[in-house]
């Protein structure tokens, strides 16, 4: 689960760096737009990377950013699936990774491992006196 988030984060960061380099060294239609897009992708890539780190350390806060990342990835996957050429397999991979990560994040085992209390459950109390 942490690996899937790290994979998505790394892909975003690599894509952002590529856009930055092409914006600076290549001949894009709009260098400013390429550079801003690259910076945006790098910033967005850091979110799943931090979430992956938190998941590895079993921090309860990390589940929220990981869930949000996967939910945001689904419309992107849908857009890729509706395109043409090489983007269709990319959409299939992204959809598969996102759905797998969402399933893993929603499992009761994961919730327990992260120490997240379920709604309606009583907080644990120490009964030793």
Labels describing this entry:
74% helix, elongated, mainly alpha, 5 helices
Give your account of this protein's structure.
The protein has 129 residues and is mainly α. The chain has five helices and no strands. The protein has helices at residues 2-25, 31-56, 63-81, 87-106, 108-113. Helix 2 (31-56) packs across helix 3 and helix 3 (63-81) runs antiparallel to helix 4 (87-106). The longest helix is centred in the middle third of the chain and has 26 residues, at 31-56. The mean pLDDT is 89.
Query: Low-confidence runs (pLDDT<50, min 5 residues)?
Result: none
Number of strands: 0
What integer is the average pLDDT? 89
Evaluate the radius of gyration. 18 Å
Q: Kindly name the structural category.
A: mainly alpha
Separate helix tally: 5
The geometry reads as elongated
Helix and strand pattern: HHHHH
Q: For the terminal residues, how far apart are their CA atoms?
A: 39 Å
List the helices and strands and how they pair.
Blueprint: H1 2-25, H2 31-56, H3 63-81, H4 87-106, H5 108-113
Helix pairs in contact: 1-2, 2-3, 3-4
């Amino acid at each position: 689960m942490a690996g899937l988030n790290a994979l998505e984060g790394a892909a975003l960061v690599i894509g952002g760096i590529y856009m930055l380099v092409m914006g600076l060294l290549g001949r894009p239609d709009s260098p400013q737009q390429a550079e801003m897009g690259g910076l945006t992708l790098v910033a967005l890539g850091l979110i799943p990377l931090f979430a992956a780190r938190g998941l590895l350390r079993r921090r309860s806060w990390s589940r929220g950013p990981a869930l949000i990342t996967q939910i945001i990835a689904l419309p992107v996957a849908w857009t890729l699936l509706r395109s043409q050429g090489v983007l269709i397999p990319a959409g299939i991979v992204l959809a598969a990774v996102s759905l797998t990560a969402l399933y893993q994040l929603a499992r009761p085992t994961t919730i327990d491992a992260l120490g997240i209390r379920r709604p309606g459950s009583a907080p644990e109390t120490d009964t030793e006196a």
